[in-house]
Amino acid sequence: MTTRAKKAAAPKRRTYHHGDLRQALVDATLKLIATEDVGAVSLREVARRAGVTAAAPYHHFRDKDALLAAVAEEGYRALNARMDEAMTKARSPRLDTQLKALARCYVRFAVEHPAHYRVMFRQEWSDEEKYAGIHTEGMRAYARLQELAQEARVASGGKVDMDILAFTIWSWVHGLASLWNEGPLRKKSQSDSIEPLLERSSEMFVGWVVGKAP
């Protein structure tokens, strides 16, 4: 085969308009994580899957961590949007109704977007200055839990520790979602849907919280 023929047979690289490449790389990363794992991510492999040159990702991301940080920040933004919508729809002054709405929203997001969720809580993002976007969006999500924990504290006459309750609520929804996504709860429940478990767990846990804040 001639050199000209070889060039003609080579895969055609995609051409992205200004602003499209960054999102294409994030989307390719999410698909890679979904089919393999975070450990499989590299700028070269993501570029290959996006159909661009190996050098192209460096126009937007200095390294793999920067790319994964973009995935995490996108995940937090999407979670916050879902939380805003869920709390608006709940439209109830009742603490139990608000807690259930928030819990269902959080867990459903994690189950529907496991690739995002797997990246959002990596230890690497603890550098608040380096990953300011992740920290800002993450704190906005956590503030929702703090608001409800504060309501519970007020309702209990100050008997409930707001920070401990916020940590406990977060641990509950995060643990439920993680154990489902990783398989143990899915196997134990013998179900393809987390909804029955989520509803029973919400009734039990929220009942306990409200019981502590009569």
Automatic annotation (TrEMBL):
<protein>
    <submittedName>
        <fullName>TetR family transcriptional regulator</fullName>
    </submittedName>
</protein>
<dbReference type="InterPro" id="IPR009057">
    <property type="entry name" value="Homeodomain-like_sf"/>
</dbReference>
<dbReference type="Pfam" id="PF00440">
    <property type="entry name" value="TetR_N"/>
</dbReference>
<dbReference type="GO" id="GO:0003700">
    <property type="term" value="F:DNA-binding transcription factor activity"/>
</dbReference>
<dbReference type="InterPro" id="IPR025996">
    <property type="entry name" value="MT1864/Rv1816-like_C"/>
</dbReference>
<dbReference type="GO" id="GO:0000976">
    <property type="term" value="F:transcription cis-regulatory region binding"/>
</dbReference>
<dbReference type="InterPro" id="IPR001647">
    <property type="entry name" value="HTH_TetR"/>
</dbReference>
<keyword id="KW-0238">DNA-binding</keyword>
<dbReference type="InterPro" id="IPR036271">
    <property type="entry name" value="Tet_transcr_reg_TetR-rel_C_sf"/>
</dbReference>
<keyword id="KW-0804">Transcription</keyword>
<keyword id="KW-0805">Transcription regulation</keyword>
<feature type="DNA-binding region" description="H-T-H motif">
    <location>
        <begin position="42"/>
        <end position="61"/>
    </location>
</feature>
<dbReference type="InterPro" id="IPR050109">
    <property type="entry name" value="HTH-type_TetR-like_transc_reg"/>
</dbReference>
<feature type="domain" description="HTH tetR-type">
    <location>
        <begin position="19"/>
        <end position="79"/>
    </location>
</feature>
<dbReference type="Pfam" id="PF13305">
    <property type="entry name" value="TetR_C_33"/>
</dbReference>
